[in-house]
Amino acid sequence: GASSTGASDRRVVETFLAGGDITAGDIVCFDTSQTGADRIVYVVKADAGAAATHQAIGVCLDTIDVSEVSDFRVQVVVKGYVEGANVANAVSTIGTLLNAGTTAGRAVAYVAGDAEAPFAQALEAAAGNTADIFVLGVFS
Whose CA is closest to 20, among 63, 61, 58? Predict the structure, then answer.
């Protein structure tokens, strides 16, 4: 059987610019503090507690400290399989739909009525605040 992290056409990775520090595995969203088209070019850690950074679009594959790096480009999985995404330990059921939580960059279980749409599905129970997930493709 096929066993590849980027198997077939099931994974889509896009390049964005980092609007802040991001750790590989973090859940990200558009940086709406930017202006014009930059609002969909820059990404930041998704945070349901911050008005401008709600709707998660994917998982960042890179770690970046914007104070130390002049090239702010990051790769983000906007659809498909991701190993070791930043997911709250409370996600204990395979198949749980996910969206951004109030800890920046960490996904939590989607609850009906949430302001943000679910962006991913858990493929396993989270442990150590990480889990393998499938990003549904809100962005793509």
Answer: 63
What the block records as the tokens of 34 is: 């930017």
Q: What token pair was written down for 1?
A: 């059987």
Give the separation between CA 51 and CA 120, rounded to whole angstroms: 21
Please name every residue paired with 27 in a beta bridge, in sequence order, or none if there are none. 59
The full length of the chain comes to: 140
Instruction: From 27, 45, 18, 49, select the one nearest 131 (Cα to Cα).
Output: 27
Cα angle value 108/37/55 (rounded, 5°): 10
Query: With a threshold of 0.85, does the pTM exceed it?
Result: yes
Mean pLDDT across the stretch 43-47?
94
